[in-house]
Amino acid sequence: MKKVIVGVFGRNVVDFETGEILGRALVFFWRGRLLLLGYQGPPLQVEFVAEVPFEYSRRVVGFRKAIVPDFPRTRIPASDMPALHDND
Amino acid sequence: MIMIKVLTVFLTHQAPDSVRAMLNYWRDLDANQSFLIVNGGPHDLTDSIDCATVVVNDPALRTLDHGREKQSYQGVFQAAAPYVAASGADFVSFVEYDEVPLQPDMNARMIAAIEQEKADVLGFRLYRVDGTSHHQYLDHCRDPEFSTYWRGMSSREEKTAVLSMLGCGSFWRSEAFLTVAGLVSSPRIYLEMFMPTAAHHLGYRVRPFPVDQESSMEPEVVKMMSELQAWKARGAWRVHPVKEMWLGAQTQDFQS
User: Does the beta-carbon distance from A68 to B137 stay under 8 Å?
Assistant: First the structure.
């Protein structure tokens, strides 16, 4: 039922950088906060988007898909560690 | 002594008949595999299946609302760890009972993927979730112990990173699996965040499976046995979740 309501009355949530449609949600402004209801897509980062042309009266809040981690390995595998010798 | 390349660790709560059907299917697909059953359910599997079995009696595993109750696989990892270490396996494939493999050379494909990524852990639906809308992350943020724990154990310069991946279908170098299993005094953190974040902060490289394998593992879309051939034709290595798979003699129909 929730899916149907979000599907009919919701709006697409779009990655402002790539244009990828990330999911659908009902969007409300309530008590000074932005509410996203029914969103089922990947985790979202939220930020103000720099717009061209520059305007004093407008601010745009955009969504971006969470990043896929790409951290290097920092641990030396046990198999690569030098052997310990009791007699050294 | 037989050298084991990949040890497949199954987490199941199902009855002996279903576990036998599951093992038979996996063995029929690829006879050259090694398995460990981690029994988290109420059934006694000791004398009813021909496979190594360990039992987990961890209340943190037996949750109903997994996210809100912060379901944990630490008890599962710790129960499996002695067997993994003794097996000498290079890799651990961590599998939930409702995953169905489709390709006979799935292990070889996963090894190729982890080597290509130069990774220590591969997972599905892998994201960095700190600072995002991720619902479990936001729930954990209310607990100061959550960030304190990562800061205290992290070997990384950036100690605030939190990762999330599906609990099913992860692929590990054995060393990474055993090191994460060795974290015995961690606070209660939902398994989908704990597993990849712990591995990351211990200095291991965590990466996603190839992107074309994601759709066949989506937990929100329950798959039917009648769809397996179509998934296989589309190149899926395996599908999840297939809840009905081991519950009856229908398994034989698919294989024939």
Answer: no
List pLDDT tens digits, range A36-56.
999 999 999 999 998 888 888
> Is B110 within a domain?
yes
Is the CB of A73 less than 8 angstroms away from the CB of B133?
no
Provide the token pair at B153: 């154990």
Residues of A in contact with B125 (CB under 8 A): 42
Rounded to a whole number, what is the largest CA-CA distance in chain B?
Answer: 54
The domain tally of chain A equals 1
Residues 6 or more apart in contact with residue A77 via CB below 8 angstroms: B173, B175
Whether ipTM > 0.90 holds is no
Residue B154 sits in which domain range?
Answer: 6-249
What CATH number should be reported for the domain holding residue B113? 3.90.550.10
Residue A64 in contact with partner chain B when CB distance is under 8 A:
no
Q: Can you give the pTM of this predicted structure?
A: 0.90
Instruction: Determine, yes or no, domain membership for B255.
Output: no
Q: Which residues pair with B55 in a beta bridge?
A: B39
Q: What is the pLDDT of residues B98-107, one digit of tens each?
A: 999 999 999 9
Judge whether A57 lies within some domain: yes
